[in-house]
Each structure stands twice: as C-alpha cells, then as structure tokens.
Prior knowledge:
The complex is a heterodimer.
Chain A: H1 2-15, H2 30-37, H3 73-76, H4 84-92, H5 94-97, H6 111-125, H7 128-131
Helix pairs in contact in A: 2-6, 4-6
Chain B: H1 9-32, H2 35-39, H3 42-71, H4 79-103, H5 125-146, H6 153-176
Helix pairs in contact in B: 1-4, 1-6, 3-4, 3-5, 4-6, 5-6
Amino acid sequence: MRFARATLPALLAGALGGSAIAASTPVGDAQRGAEIYTRCEACHSLQYDRTGPRHCGLVGRRAGSVPGFAYSAAMKRSKLTWDEQTLDRFLANPPGVVPGTAMTYAGVADAQERADLIAYLRAAGASAACRAMR
Amino acid sequence: MSFFDYPNVTIARRTMLARSGALLSGAAVALLAGRDALAAQSADAAGDVRILNTALAAEYEAIAAYQVGAESGLLQKPVLDLAVTFQGQHKEHADVLAKTVQKLGGTPVAAKPKYEFPVASLKTQADVLTFAASLEKGAVSAYLGAVPLFANRDLSKAAASILGDEAMHWAVLRQALGMPPVPSAFVA
Lengths: 134, 188
C-alpha cells in the first residue's frame, strides 16, 4: 500500500498541474529512495554506464563529465553540478531543466520522492561498491 | 492462461509470439502508418526522435541483457524459452522504434558494441530472473515517463502499448520468482 499511496499523489499532482517543487525541501529517506531508484534501472545503474551514465559519484559531479559516456550536447553544456538543489530541480522535470537532454522522462513530481531518491544517491555514492570505483 | 500452463513450451512460445505479434502490429500501425501525420509535425519531430532514441537505446540494452541470461547456462526450460520470447519482443520494439525514428527524419541510435552487466552476481536462475525483472520494472517506469512527453499523440499511444508489454514481462518474471505478480494497483 505504501507504493500506491506514494504513487497516486504524484499522478494527481501532475494531472492537476501543481508546482513540481515544494516550497520547502523535505528530508529524504535513503531506504525509501532505494525503492524509488528501481524506476531508474532500465537506463541507469550505480556502477555501470548504461543508456544513462553511472550514478556512483553523482553527487558533486559536474553534469556531462563521466569519461567515455556519450552525453547529449545539451547535458554537456548545461554547466550544472549535481547537488541536492540541482538534482531536485532536474528530477522534477528533466527536459524542462535541460532542454535537449537524452533523459526523456517526465520527472518525479512528488517532492518527498525526489528527496528520498537524492538521499539514496548520496548514500549509495558512499557505499563500498562505489568507493571501490574511485 | 500463463506461459507455464500450456501443454508444452513450443505451443506456449508459438502462441505467445503470435499474440505479441498482434499487439505489436497495433503499435506498428500507430507508428508506421500515416507518414503525413508524422511529417506534418516536423517542428516537434526532433523532440520525439530524442524520446524514441532513448527508448531504442534501452531496448537494445534489454536485448543484450536477455542474451547474457540465455547464454548463462543458469536458465532451465521453460524459463529459458520465456526469456528468449521476451527478448524477441524487445527486438520487435527496437525494430519499430528504429523505423519510426527514420520516418521522422532522424538517425536511430545504434546498439553498443559491448554492454556491462553485473554478471559476477548472477549465480542462479533466480538471480537472472531478478535482474531481468529489475530491467522490466525500470522499462515500465521509463515508458511511463516518456508517454506524456511526445508531441505526437500517436507516439504516446504506441509507447503505452510497449509499456503494457514490458509490464506483462515484469509480472510474469515476478510470478516465476514466486512473488506476487502484480504488486500494486499503480505503476510509477
């Protein structure tokens, strides 16, 4: 039921055209974020470049900078550095924040879900698996 | 009727392939018929091509992942046949997506020469199925996130058709793993 409760408000928020970014940023829960991250796994993984770039080391990384990954021109010139704020904005509406991005995904409308996802990405970046890649 | 309920794998596979062909031909009609309708929206075509190419890249990766599973020696019949069937459907998705990109005047992305998968952690049939299920679940989410972005609503419809197919894959894989096949009323 947690899944359904989390999903329906997001669907309705999008349908009603509400602001995707809440006035105050909620506190993220990495464990919930791990479940939300499963939505990303058609294109992303922590350790491997796939359709999208690897996520180990994402937080603090300049956008478009993983060596050898074929980014869109739009992402390479975005001048973003991934932190809580830029990730929150991007995840809410990827094509809106970086027009021309290859991440053609409508976004995560729910601010709590974004915070959870970002908390997971930060925690995963500090995991042994990711540390081993440095 | 599930894949596992057919009297033998050959009949099951033939029946499922025939049915998937019927489903995909519906998607193909939406994508490939009506050249004028697609061409008429050329101002938006670049954006639609970008969405289709991202989906195409993910489909190529899914095809490669199923190949790894099929060649792992870990899948036993009828699960092996199931994986090959699903891989075939991903190939059909990729074919339609690539042709549609071309029809819109774009250049389809090519499959990578090599993909990286967590092969070291795939030690049992359940590991392979769990990995495949994670890709299928992700594909459902990816298509769900793409459907509202298309400028051409026919493409949204076609993407939703593929989404439905990926969702069926995910559910069947969960069933094969002994998990509730449909874990919730909504996908995200």
